[in-house]
């Protein structure tokens, strides 16, 4: 049986795939450019814009934020949340201070059905 995802989960998966594809394209462009000239900050900025990496990154961040907000709302209906409200709320409060915490919440959010 195929899992059913929420809109926030689907949007996150789409944005993540797009970001990974753009990152791969950027890496290839960097390698090709490196053969003919030095990679300066200006060159790198041009490649980032040319490949669409910057836009894909922004879309991924927006999708992550929406997924996190959705998970925070959705989890409040779970028995586990009511039993562990304090530590769970602490996790969400610290989401922007720890990249590891953010990644963990995103991973957990993708497991919500």
Cα-based radius of gyration, to the nearest Å: 18 Å
Provide the residue-averaged pLDDT. Answer: 93
Counted by DSSP, the helix tally is 6
Report the sheet-strand fraction: under 5%
Class by alpha and beta content: mainly alpha
DSSP, total strands: 0
Biggest sheet record: none
**Uncertain residue segments:** none
Measure the end-to-end span. 13 Å
Q: Outline, from the CA principal axes? A: elongated
Give helix % range: over 70%
Features of the shown structure:
mainly alpha, 113 residues, elongated
List the helices and strands and how they pair.
Blueprint lengths: L6 H28 L6 H11 L1 H23 L3 H5 L1 H9 L5 H11 L4
Helix pairs in contact: 1-2, 1-3
Short description:
By secondary structure, this protein is mainly alpha-helical. The protein has six helices and no strands.
């Amino acid at each position: 049986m195929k899992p059913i995802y929420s809109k926030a989960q689907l949007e996150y998966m789409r944005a993540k795939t797009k970001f990974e594809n753009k990152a791969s394209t950027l890496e290839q462009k960097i390698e090709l450019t490196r053969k003919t000239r030095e990679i300066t900050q200006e060159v790198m900025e041009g490649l980032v814009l040319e490949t669409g990496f910057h836009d894909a990154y922004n879309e991924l961040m927006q999708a992550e934020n929406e997924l996190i907000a959705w998970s925070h709302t959705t989890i409040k209906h779970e028995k586990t949340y009511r039993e562990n409200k304090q530590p769970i709320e602490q996790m969400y409060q610290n989401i922007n201070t720890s990249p590891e915490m953010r990644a963990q919440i995103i991973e957990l959010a993708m497991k919500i059905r």
